[in-house]
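Exam prep: given the inputs below (a chain plus coenzyme a persulfide), describe the expected output before reading on.
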Amino acid sequence: MNFELDDELLTLQETARRFADEEIIPVAAQFDVSGEFPTEILRKAWELGLSHTFIPEEHGGVGLSILGSCVAVEEVSRGCSGMTTSMISQDLGLTPILIGGSEDQKREWLAPCADEFKIFAFCLSEPNAGSDVAGLQLHAERDGDDYVLNGTKAWITNGGVADIYTVFATLDRSTRHSGICAFVVSRDTPGLTPGKKEDKMGQRASDTCVIHFDNVRVPASQRLGAEGEGFKLAMATLDRTRPLIGALATGIARRALEESLAYSADRKAFGQPIGDFQAVQFMLADMAKDIEAGRLLTYQCAWLLDQGRAASKQSSMAKCFATDSAMRATTDAVQIFGGNGYTREYPVEKLMRDAKLMQIYEGTNQIQRVVIARELRRG
Ligand code: COS
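Solution:
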């Protein structure tokens, strides 16, 4: 067993770390306040090969392994998790094409990303179907060589700014899982309209909005996989992207630890740095051990996926453990900073607000526990 990253991954890690330090950290607070979408920063990430990482070289991409993506994501997230959420939503949005699309579809929708910065969005959740994917209601009706989509998607990351949407719809709601189909839809398709942008508590640099589908006509050639394969395609996509959330959470927790270590060495109480007190040291120690454990779970899951092995259980474990840990670490960081931590003058309150979303999106942590328990009971 070898826990060392190879030279290629170390170089990638260094590139991502420098990108976070130089391009993201100086402006993260400003984007948090304005809620502006960081298009140019995301474009730079794409130029550096830090986004759209799953697109294989044969389709013009950088073809990073999932482990490689996780290494990069942790570094970028240390800078700003909202921007990183937008960045990894590129891979979330394009993965259904990658694993469910034909060669022609990959050539048409993925290959152009080599030359042009394209934004993807994964449209699964709906106002009345978040955890219960099989209960989704966006309706797809076959009409000759097309499908006509009607309904609404909700909480769509990159929804307002995307060029390409992967969309899950049902032919017949009563058939639940077996009626779901996936489609790739271009932004300029008539009837597709991004709606209200959410005014979020955290991760405010990521764009999250409702998408309305009003008689959106999609050629059957843009269906990904066969009719009825959409549910499994969505699940297989999430298996591959949940470790990225583990990495994202590890990046936030690491930043919380770095900030807490520096502050507790500097801030004095009772005549000594607060870091001299065990009460503070225990919080720092818990952060550090959870960061290591979350990273190892994430890397193990990524490694399994890179070997082409099933990893639903590990994917949910990595996502759930690392994001719960990040919530704890950032809450403790605010505690260590005391009154200062509760103000916007210091970076830790943002980390805490940002961390909360990770326990909710890409499947709530309650859903992750459902997946883990089902896998355990299946044996
Ligand atoms: N990969 C491939 N197939 C899978 C799968 C996976 N990871 N998970 C389930 N399936 C298959 C099952 O094997 C089953 O197949 P058969 O019908 O052939 O037996 C089918 O899909 C239905 O599976 P299941 O009965 O487990 O589905 P449930 O409706 O009970 O839902 C959960 C499963 C709750 C796990 C799923 O709806 C889920 O992940 N919800 C959270 C969604 C989410 O993450 N939303 C966030 C939005 S994206 S940012």
